[in-house]
Amino acid sequence: MNTRINELNEAELPARELLEKLGYTFVPRGVLDAERDSCRAVLLEDRLREALKRLNPWMNDDHVNRVIFNLQNVQATGISRNQAIHEYLTYGMSLEVEVASVRRPRTVQFFDFDLSAPRYGRNEYVVTTQMRIRLPQERDSRTEDDERQVIPDLVLFANGIPLVVIEAKAASLIGEVWKARAVRQLRRYQESRGAPELFDYNLACVGISGAAAAFGSFGAPEKAYAPWRLTPEAAADANQRYGIEPKGQAELLIGMLEPTVLLDIMRDFVVFEPENGRLVKKLPRYQQYRAVTGAMERMLGENDAEERGGVIWHTQGSGKSLTMLWLATKLRREPRLDNPT
What is the rounded radius of gyration, in angstroms, for the C-alpha atoms of the chain? Predict the structure, then answer.
């Protein structure tokens, strides 16, 4: 009981309060429960429907129903399912619609990546705590029974889609025991006897302890979970903007889970690669994200061609190939660069 109280006071509540400052709206799980079709539903369908119509004004109710059906019925499992859904969410979903008695494909957008800041209101960002998802082998029921449910500490939604699952642990645990326990729990949630449907849409999994935080992708082992660091300039800006010293778990929450950064990572910084016969999902370390965004700022911010170049210093094994891949993705997507070779 004392450990749970420490988790709540040292990690979960401070995280929720900071996420609200970052632009997320806190919605108690009881309110979200009333919106969900069942105790196993993980999509907030009403919020997703509103977002689809807001971002795709041409859509009607039938179009929306077909899109949600397609999203929920991808013919794949595990990491392959996560990859297929990720491609829908980032590149859009092709949908045949009838225009002037002719069926033509239209591309459905799930997020506004260009105007992603909460102040624009184009995307809806929600955080909830202690969301309950009934285990697959248990009978669907509204009865509260923690032994028959998966209960992640925090879940972050964008337009009704669960993108981030956060597990909180007490900072009083010795060394990195908090991290081992958080990752173990996150991996247990991902198993077939847990709540695998919650991770169909997942971008990142996060463990926090108040004093520290680490993130990893769906399926990642504990050794792949890493911290997120801010530059001194970014830390000073965050302190001024949010009135909080970005240390401990706050550094990752501000640096990675701020809505514009989160959607930026989702759109341009995810890769699925086969390794040793299995598919692996890879997210950027903070150094890679910093290198790519810094390079883009240099190229777009300088008028003199001589000033648009530069050097990025790397160490061996730091992920140079992925940094180049993600930079190339950014360059090709930037309309001001007119599809550079």
Answer: 20
Tell me the pTM. 0.94
Segments in the chain below pLDDT 50: none
Q: Residue 143: its pLDDT value, please?
A: 53
Q: What are phi and psi of 88, to 5 degrees?
A: -60, -45
Handedness of CA 94, 74, 111, 293 (dihedral sign): negative
pLDDT in tens, 295-333: 999 999 888 888 888 898 888 888 999 999 999 999 999
pLDDT of residue 33: 92
Q: CA nearest 196: which of 89, 54, 40?
A: 40
Cβ contacts of 9 within 8 Å, gap of 6 or more: none
**Distance linking the first and last C-alpha atoms of the chain:** 59
> How far apart are the C-alpha atoms of 13 and 335, rounded to whole Å?
41
CA-CA-CA-CA dihedral for 56, 283, 210, 41, to nearest 10: 50
Reduce the DSSP state of residue 228 to 3 states and report it.
coil
